[in-house]
Amino acid sequence: MKAGLVICAIFLLASVVLGAAQAPVAKALSPLEQTLIASEKSLIEAKKKDDGEFFKRTLSEDFALVGVDGELHQQQEAVDELGDSGLLELTAYDIKVVAVSENAAIVTAAIVTYDAVVRKAPEEDQGPPPRYQHFSSVWVKQGDGWKLKFHQATAAHWGDW
User: Fold this and answer.
1) The 145-155 sheet, strands edge to edge
2) Would you tell me which of 41, 42, 44, 130 could form a disulfide with 160, CB atoms 3.0–4.6 Å apart?
3) What pTM was computed for the model?
4) Residues paired with 113 in a beta bridge
Protein backbone atom coordinates (compact mmCIF):
# COMPACT_ATOMS: atom_id res chain seq x y z
CA MET A 1 0.00 0.00 0.00
CA LYS A 2 2.81 2.42 0.93
CA ALA A 3 4.64 1.54 -2.28
CA GLY A 4 1.50 2.38 -4.30
CA LEU A 5 1.17 5.76 -2.59
CA VAL A 6 4.84 6.54 -3.20
CA ILE A 7 4.51 5.64 -6.90
CA CYS A 8 1.37 7.81 -7.23
CA ALA A 9 3.14 10.70 -5.50
CA ILE A 10 6.12 10.36 -7.86
CA PHE A 11 3.87 10.36 -10.96
CA LEU A 12 1.91 13.34 -9.63
CA LEU A 13 5.08 15.29 -8.91
CA ALA A 14 6.56 14.41 -12.31
CA SER A 15 3.41 15.57 -14.12
CA VAL A 16 3.42 18.89 -12.22
CA VAL A 17 7.10 19.47 -12.99
CA LEU A 18 6.67 18.59 -16.68
CA GLY A 19 3.57 20.80 -16.94
CA ALA A 20 5.40 23.74 -15.38
CA ALA A 21 8.36 23.23 -17.70
CA GLN A 22 6.09 23.49 -20.74
CA ALA A 23 4.44 26.74 -19.64
CA PRO A 24 5.49 29.58 -21.97
CA VAL A 25 7.78 32.18 -20.48
CA ALA A 26 6.38 35.69 -20.75
CA LYS A 27 8.63 37.98 -22.77
CA ALA A 28 9.69 41.13 -21.00
CA LEU A 29 8.20 44.23 -22.59
CA SER A 30 10.56 46.70 -24.23
CA PRO A 31 10.43 50.37 -23.15
CA LEU A 32 8.59 51.16 -26.43
CA GLU A 33 5.98 48.47 -25.72
CA GLN A 34 5.56 49.66 -22.13
CA THR A 35 5.09 53.28 -23.21
CA LEU A 36 2.60 52.57 -25.99
CA ILE A 37 0.58 50.00 -24.06
CA ALA A 38 0.26 52.54 -21.22
CA SER A 39 -0.76 55.20 -23.78
CA GLU A 40 -3.39 52.89 -25.28
CA LYS A 41 -4.78 52.02 -21.84
CA SER A 42 -5.01 55.76 -21.09
CA LEU A 43 -6.88 56.18 -24.38
CA ILE A 44 -9.35 53.45 -23.37
CA GLU A 45 -10.03 55.21 -20.05
CA ALA A 46 -10.42 58.55 -21.85
CA LYS A 47 -12.90 56.97 -24.28
CA LYS A 48 -15.01 55.74 -21.37
CA LYS A 49 -15.08 59.23 -19.81
CA ASP A 50 -15.30 61.15 -23.11
CA ASP A 51 -12.27 63.08 -21.85
CA GLY A 52 -11.90 65.98 -24.31
CA GLU A 53 -8.77 67.33 -22.57
CA PHE A 54 -7.00 64.00 -23.00
CA PHE A 55 -7.93 63.95 -26.69
CA LYS A 56 -6.59 67.50 -27.20
CA ARG A 57 -3.27 66.52 -25.62
CA THR A 58 -2.94 63.13 -27.28
CA LEU A 59 -4.36 63.24 -30.80
CA SER A 60 -2.30 64.43 -33.77
CA GLU A 61 -3.65 67.37 -35.77
CA ASP A 62 -4.51 65.05 -38.68
CA PHE A 63 -6.12 62.33 -36.53
CA ALA A 64 -8.54 59.99 -38.35
CA LEU A 65 -10.83 57.25 -37.08
CA VAL A 66 -12.63 54.35 -38.75
CA GLY A 67 -15.61 53.39 -36.63
CA VAL A 68 -16.97 49.88 -36.14
CA ASP A 69 -19.51 50.72 -38.87
CA GLY A 70 -16.66 51.24 -41.36
CA GLU A 71 -17.19 54.99 -41.64
CA LEU A 72 -14.13 57.26 -41.88
CA HIS A 73 -14.16 60.29 -39.58
CA GLN A 74 -11.59 63.07 -39.69
CA GLN A 75 -10.66 66.09 -37.60
CA GLN A 76 -13.28 67.19 -35.03
CA GLU A 77 -15.81 64.61 -36.22
CA ALA A 78 -13.24 61.90 -35.42
CA VAL A 79 -12.65 63.35 -31.95
CA ASP A 80 -16.41 63.42 -31.34
CA GLU A 81 -16.71 59.76 -32.38
CA LEU A 82 -13.77 58.64 -30.22
CA GLY A 83 -15.25 59.57 -26.86
CA ASP A 84 -18.23 57.58 -25.66
CA SER A 85 -19.58 58.22 -22.19
CA GLY A 86 -22.29 55.60 -22.90
CA LEU A 87 -19.63 52.90 -22.94
CA LEU A 88 -20.36 50.38 -20.20
CA GLU A 89 -17.27 48.21 -20.75
CA LEU A 90 -14.18 48.12 -22.93
CA THR A 91 -11.87 45.39 -21.70
CA ALA A 92 -8.74 45.02 -23.81
CA TYR A 93 -6.77 41.78 -24.07
CA ASP A 94 -3.96 40.36 -26.19
CA ILE A 95 -2.33 43.79 -26.68
CA LYS A 96 0.58 43.86 -29.12
CA VAL A 97 2.91 46.64 -30.27
CA VAL A 98 4.49 46.54 -33.73
CA ALA A 99 7.17 49.09 -34.58
CA VAL A 100 6.66 50.39 -38.12
CA SER A 101 10.42 50.61 -38.69
CA GLU A 102 11.84 47.79 -36.56
CA ASN A 103 15.41 48.05 -37.87
CA ALA A 104 15.69 51.80 -37.39
CA ALA A 105 17.79 53.13 -34.53
CA ILE A 106 14.94 55.43 -33.52
CA VAL A 107 11.34 54.25 -33.85
CA THR A 108 9.06 57.10 -34.95
CA ALA A 109 5.81 55.18 -35.52
CA ALA A 110 4.20 52.06 -34.11
CA ILE A 111 0.92 50.16 -34.27
CA VAL A 112 -0.89 49.00 -31.15
CA THR A 113 -3.39 46.25 -31.82
CA TYR A 114 -5.68 44.35 -29.46
CA ASP A 115 -9.00 42.61 -29.02
CA ALA A 116 -11.63 43.86 -26.62
CA VAL A 117 -14.95 43.05 -25.06
CA VAL A 118 -17.26 46.02 -25.60
CA ARG A 119 -20.57 46.70 -23.92
CA LYS A 120 -22.56 49.79 -24.70
CA ALA A 121 -26.18 50.74 -24.19
CA PRO A 122 -28.12 50.38 -27.46
CA GLU A 123 -28.90 53.57 -29.33
CA GLU A 124 -32.51 54.40 -30.22
CA ASP A 125 -32.27 53.62 -33.91
CA GLN A 126 -29.70 50.81 -33.65
CA GLY A 127 -28.99 47.73 -31.60
CA PRO A 128 -25.94 47.39 -29.40
CA PRO A 129 -22.52 47.45 -31.09
CA PRO A 130 -20.66 44.17 -31.65
CA ARG A 131 -19.59 42.73 -28.31
CA TYR A 132 -16.17 41.58 -29.56
CA GLN A 133 -14.09 44.09 -31.46
CA HIS A 134 -10.55 44.39 -32.74
CA PHE A 135 -8.82 47.75 -32.33
CA SER A 136 -5.76 49.15 -34.07
CA SER A 137 -4.04 52.44 -33.34
CA VAL A 138 -1.18 54.17 -35.11
CA TRP A 139 1.03 56.20 -32.75
CA VAL A 140 3.66 58.62 -34.10
CA LYS A 141 6.58 60.16 -32.25
CA GLN A 142 6.34 63.96 -32.13
CA GLY A 143 9.05 65.66 -30.12
CA ASP A 144 9.49 63.79 -26.85
CA GLY A 145 5.99 62.30 -26.83
CA TRP A 146 3.66 60.03 -28.76
CA LYS A 147 0.52 61.22 -30.57
CA LEU A 148 -2.38 59.11 -31.78
CA LYS A 149 -2.67 59.53 -35.56
CA PHE A 150 -5.20 56.81 -36.48
CA HIS A 151 -7.62 54.50 -34.67
CA GLN A 152 -9.88 51.77 -36.06
CA ALA A 153 -12.50 49.52 -34.51
CA THR A 154 -13.55 46.35 -36.36
CA ALA A 155 -16.31 43.93 -35.39
CA ALA A 156 -14.73 40.56 -34.58
CA HIS A 157 -17.98 38.52 -34.62
CA TRP A 158 -20.69 39.71 -36.97
CA GLY A 159 -23.28 37.54 -35.22
CA ASP A 160 -23.09 39.77 -32.15
CA TRP A 161 -24.96 42.70 -33.73
Assistant:
1) 72-74, 59-66, 145-155, 132-142, 109-120, 87-99
2) 130
3) 0.76
4) 96, 136
